[in-house]
Amino acid sequence: MNEQIFGKVDQYISNLLAPEDQVLKDTIKSLDEEGFPQISVTANLGKFLQVMAVLSNAKKILELGTLAGYSTIWLARALPADGKLITLEVEQRHSDLARKNIGKAGLSDKVDFRVGKAMEILPQLIENGEGPFDLIFIDADKPPYAEYFEYALSLSRPGTVIICDNVIREGKILDENTSDEKVKGVQRFNKLLQSNKNVTATIIQTVGVKEHDGMAIAVVNRTDPS
Ligand code: SAH
Ligand code: DHB
Ligand code: MG
């Protein structure tokens, strides 16, 4: 098998099941216009997030890492009329761009933009009693993924779905001697997933129009593990 087939099949699936409307296409374009990185989730993974939000009947969603709001749009579109999504972003310019894109998507009343370091905002969310969330999507900087996951657990209830992007990094996670801080961060997170008995978790390896990577999916257990 060659890598081309993965891209072609990804395109086939997204044409079928995750076609981008103009707002999503313009959101991707807005990143180039601003010179921001093209590191949004793919259309199919955006749809996957949406499926997870529907599956978990999510009314309250928390996202770490807004960028241009591309994944935010996919997730917020799964919310009921009274649903809310809080999205955290450290770069004011990213958050401002996302606010515009979310406005064009007609989702402004559902999305709450918080600007600052996730590590500083997360304890505030806990302190202010803004949890529990039904679904949490972790997609900010990679080195503190394990800490983000612990905070996510504190903002959860039994049944909460926690999804983490970029936990395979083209297989670089196999290298135990890596000096890449991003890879080390997700390796530490993946080990935490293994040892934490309060969640039922797995990692889905992803290939397609973007580089080989993976998404972790964890559900907070409803009963004590036997
Ligand atoms: N979820 C987005 C992509 C997010 S890219 C999508 O799929 O559409 C990662 C984002 O996390 C970037 O915008 C980056 O600025 C932001 N980020 C990096 N470090 C952060 C931190 N410490 N706290 C919050 N956001 C951070
Ligand atoms: C990077 C971050 C992401 O969230 C992503 O999906 C791909 C790459 C990065 O920081 O390199
Ligand atoms: Mg990502």
Keywords:
alpha/beta; Rossmann fold; binds S-adenosyl-L-homocysteine; seven-stranded mixed β-sheet; 226 residues; binds 3,4-dihydroxybenzoic acid; binds magnesium ion
Can you walk through the features of this model?
Helices cover 42% and strands 18% of the residues. The protein is α/β, with parallel strands linked by helices. It has a single domain, classed as Rossmann fold (3-Layer(aba) Sandwich). The chain has a 7-stranded mixed sheet, with helices on both faces. Helix 6 runs parallel beside helix 7. The longest helix has 15 residues, at 3-17. The protein is globular, with a radius of gyration of 17 Å. The chain starts with a helix and ends in a 6-residue tail after the last strand. The mean pLDDT is 97. The structure holds S-adenosyl-L-homocysteine, 3,4-dihydroxybenzoic acid (DHB) and magnesium ion.
